[in-house]
Structure formats: C-alpha cells, structure tokens
Here is the input.
Amino acid sequence: MIKTDFNNIAVNNIAYDENYKRMVFKGSVIGASFLFIFSLVDLFYAELYKDSIIEAIACVFLYSLAYIERKHHLKPWGIIAGITVIAIVIGNGAFSNEAVVGAIIWLPLVPFISFFLLGEKLGLKVSIFISTIYILIMVYIVNQFPGTGYNIYAVLSVIGALCCSIILSLAYERNRTSMIHLLAEQANTDPLTSLLNRRGLIASFSSFAALAKRNKQNLCLVLMDLDRFKAVNDKYGHDAGDIVLQRSSSIAKGLIRNIDSIARIGGEEFIIILPNTSPSEALIITERIRLAIEKLVIKSAEDEYIKITVSMGITSSSKNIMSFEDLLKIADKALYEAKNQGRNCIVLKEQDLTIKLKESA
Here is the structure.
C-alpha cells in the first residue's frame, strides 16, 4: 500500500492561491503595457524597427497570457513561456545593438521573475537555463563582434550579477515558502494537542474522499468524545484538563496507522479518519483506543489520580454518503447513542445498521 501523508496537503497547497493568480494576471498586463510603449518608442523615435517588432509580438503574447489567466489558471508551461518572452525581449535590448551603459543591468531581472512566479525548484532550473544562454551569447559577441563595445569585463560583470540574482532570489523564495508553510501549519493545527484542527481536517478530507471514490474503498469516520470532561476541569482545574486532552490525544494518535488522520475539532471532541478501512476494522482500531484511554491514569497537582473514558461513534462511506458533513452527522448520532447507553463504549451506525460494542467489565 502506498503511504500518503495527507496531513501536509493543506500546507503544501497554500503557497499559490487566488492572490497568486491575480498577481500573474496583473504582471502580464503591466509587462505587456510597458512593451507596447517601448515598441512605439523604438518604432517612431529610435527607428529600431526590429526591436519594435519583437516588442510588439511579445506584447501580444503577454496580453494573451493575461487573458488566459483571467479565464483559466495558467499551467507552469504558460508561465515559463511568458518568462521566455520577457527574457528574449531583455536579451534583444541588451545584445542586438552596441553596448549601452546600463543596458545589461536588466538581465538579472529574469531570475527574480522566474523564482517569483515558478517557485524554488522550477524557478531555479529556468533561471540557470536562461542565465547560461545569456552568458554564452555575451561570450559569442565578445569573440565575434568586438566592435560592439562588450569585453571580457562585461562578461564577468554579467556572470557575477546573474549569480547574485539567482542566489538572492533562491534565498528569498526559500524564506517566503517556509513562512507560508509555517503560517499554514499554524492555521491548520490545534496548538494544545498538535493535531489537525477542524479546518485542517476538512482540507485533507477531500483527498481521502477522492482516493476512496477512485479506488472504490471504504472510508470510516470516527467521532470521539472524552466522557465527563467538564467534571475533570471543574474538579482538578483547566491545567489538569489540558494534560488529559494531550495524553488522550497522544494515545489515540499512537494507536492509529500512518495513513490515518486525527483532529481535535473543539473542546474534548476528536475526529479520526480511517481510509481503506471496513467498519469491522474500524471497530477493532477504536476499541484498542478506548481500552488504552480507559487504563490511563494522570496524577494531578494535588496528588490525586485522574481517570477518563471515551465514547465513540463510527460511520462509513457509501455510494450515497461521501461528504464530510453527511458522515459527521451520522457519526454524531452514533456518539449520542453511545452517551445514552452508559458512555465508555463504541457505536457503529450506518444507514440501516447500528452496532454497539459494550465496555469491558
């Protein structure tokens, strides 16, 4: 069985969202507008007809990318194509005419754009490729066309500028991505137990459901609630209650599989997602958790011993029931029945079946 870390899906998918999409659209429009202006200046003022044509073509291309981005999210190849067009225009302006003071200063802009739009890995590859092309063109011009004004010092300057641009852009992108992932993790994690919170669980549940539907597998949802937890807080204090939550959640997490997911959704309630698990297998897993928590003994600050039990409601997906909300409603009904039947027990509830696993004597 392939092991998939679904708990990180919510974190990894946050780096490029709707704000990124709008940024690409605006960047394409602004870039195309500047190229349109440069094209007119080169055509009517500088009489650089070749440059004007290249800039006009690039302008149309970037406007097209902006239109596509507005209607549909661009694939990476579309972004790479846009960066390539920008690189061609910059390279043409720097290399096609005689050396102009400050002309080649635009070359290091390409690595920054590449990292900004493509991320660390793909941005690094594109930056190195385009930078290598720039350097090779400069070496060729210095050797074959010395009259242009470029020399070996210009080549070394460009190499240094491009390397600095790549290194700084890489450092910035790594820091930016790590900060985004850190914020996403904090937004999806319960600070007390270090489990997923409700938001993180819902984000990862869609992946569980899609996998179960694609592979025609069972998916079980377990709603777990600590019995009489309010009484623990009232008698021993909230600090002791926090310890009970931490220890109980740690036990539950340690007894589920790596492919499973557990989250604290509020107070003393937890949800466990068991992919590729039949209802009978879910009963075995949850009974193991129930027994382990029943045996848990915590010493309070007043040297009193705290014991806790759990009640659990289980349901499983079917052809008609696959959404998180529907499964949660059925599991909640099962948990309600477990509470009404004396607590410290497990109730499995499906559309036409209810099974109670009684507490041990």
